[in-house]
């Protein structure tokens, strides 16, 4: 009878995780089970699993895992996990915070260039053979306001500062951040909105941030400002944003996350001029599984050695 802990990798691509476990010399210390998304764990897997890694879990599963001692979410956002009615209150839950540090900053900077430079319009003009002279808008000297200056926001800030942008922002624990001129508490969000030419949302989805950007806060933004949401779809009150863009209260919005994904075909975002719909491309990376596997294996070694886990979710804060 083995005493090695059983781990269940509930993912469509388990190979990078299995390989990382082997490369770290941990394969002989665990029993690995794999399960494809949409499949149901066997009775044996339910009974024996002590470690679970998955993107999301359907209700009714966790309560049937009596030996479960740690769950690793494969995404940074864990609102779906925290909403599970059978999530054991004492179960350690870790997230994949920090695994988007290469892809997201690049894609956010790409979005800034997209709205400031007329490349998309030039491509459309090319289709009909039109030569239209346009003047690109400089990013140098513009103010980027980041709501939620975490790991991703700090990297974006460093790049933006290098481009000559002024960066300000908010975070739960204000303090000096390289590349950011001033970091304010969330209560002073209005000050950031009033100054920013581009407002970047990187907040987590919590009760406090639900509909954080509503009609009131949109009115606090500069008339020519752009809103970029690369955080969570729940941060924005959809109807209020559509109205603000249609009425030209703000210049427009670049959205990469939504309340429902894929975005439904009849949603007003699709047909509102000035709103750019991105198909959640901010975080994906060709080697993302390797990044998550690196974190998971680090945590697995800590788990086996009885050491504190990394990126533990604070359930009171919601992330």
Question: Which SSEs are present, and which pair or pack?
Answer:
Blueprint: E1 6-10, H1 15-23, E2 31-35, H2 43-48, E3 49-54, E4 70-73, H3 79-82, E5 93-94, H4 103-116, H5 119-127, E6 143-147, H6 151-162, E7 166-170, E8 182-184, H7 189-195, E9 198-201, H8 215-220, E10 226-229, H9 238-246, E11 252-255, H10 268-271, E12 275-277, H11 288-305
Parallel strand pairs: 1-2, 1-3, 3-4, 4-5, 6-7, 6-9, 7-8, 9-10, 10-11, 11-12
Number of strands: 12
Poorly predicted sequence stretches spanning 5 or more consecutive residues:
none
Q: Which strands sit side by side, in order, in the main sheet?
A: 8-7-6-9-10-11-12
**What is the typical, i.e. mean, pLDDT?**
96
Describe the structure.
This protein is an alpha/beta fold and 319 residues long. The chain is built from 11 helices and 12 strands. The chain folds into 2 domains: 114 residues, NAD(P)-binding Rossmann-like Domain (Rossmann fold, 3-Layer(aba) Sandwich), CATH 3.40.50.720; 175 residues, Rossmann fold (3-Layer(aba) Sandwich), CATH 3.40.50. The protein has a 7-stranded parallel sheet with strand order 8-7-6-9-10-11-12, with helices on both faces. The two termini are 38 Å apart. The model has no long low-confidence stretch (mean pLDDT 96).
Question: What's the short version?
Answer:
This protein has helices at residues 15-23, 43-48, 79-82, 103-116, 119-127, 151-162, 189-195, 215-220, 238-246, 268-271, 288-305, and strands at residues 6-10, 31-35, 49-54, 70-73, 93-94, 143-147, 166-170, 182-184, 198-201, 226-229, 252-255, 275-277. The chain is of the alpha/beta class and 319 residues long.
């Amino acid at each position: 009878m083995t005493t090695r802990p059983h781990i269940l990798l509930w993912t469509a691509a388990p190979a990078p995780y299995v390989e990382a476990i082997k490369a770290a010399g941990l394969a002989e210390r665990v029993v690995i089970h794999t399960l494809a998304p949409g499949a149901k764990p066997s009775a044996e897997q339910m009974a024996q699993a002590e470690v679970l890694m998955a993107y999301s879990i359907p209700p009714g599963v966790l309560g049937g895992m009596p030996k479960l001692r740690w769950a690793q979410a494969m995404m940074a956002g864990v609102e779906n996990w925290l909403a599970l009615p059978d999530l054991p209150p004492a179960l350690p839950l870790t997230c994949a915070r920090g695994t988007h540090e290469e892809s997201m900053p690049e894609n956010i900077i790409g979005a800034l260039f997209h709205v400031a430079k007329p490349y998309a319009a030039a491509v459309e003009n090319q289709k009909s053979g039109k030569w239209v002279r346009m003047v690109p808008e400089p990013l140098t000297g513009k103010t980027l306001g980041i709501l939620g200056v975490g790991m991703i926001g700090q990297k974006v800030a460093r790049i933006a500062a290098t481009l000559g942008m002024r960066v300000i922002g908010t975070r739960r624990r204000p303090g000096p951040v390289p590349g950011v001129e001033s970091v304010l508490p969330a209560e002073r969000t209005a000050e950031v909105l009033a100054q920013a030419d581009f407002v970047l949302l990187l907040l987590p989805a919590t009760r406090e941030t639900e509909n954080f950007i509503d009609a009131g806060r949109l009115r606090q933004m500069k008339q020519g400002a752009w809103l970029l949401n690369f955080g969570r779809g729940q941060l924005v009150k959809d109807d209020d944003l559509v109205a603000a863009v249609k009425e030209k209260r703000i210049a427009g919005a670049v959205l990469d996350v939504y309340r429902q994904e894929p975005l439904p075909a009849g949603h007003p975002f699709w047909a509102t001029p000035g709103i750019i719909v991105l198909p959640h491309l901010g975080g994906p990376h060709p080697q993302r599984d390797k990044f998550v596997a690196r974190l998971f294996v680090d945590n697995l070694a800590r788990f086996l050695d009885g050491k504190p886990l990394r990126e533990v979710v604070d359930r009171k804060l919601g992330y």
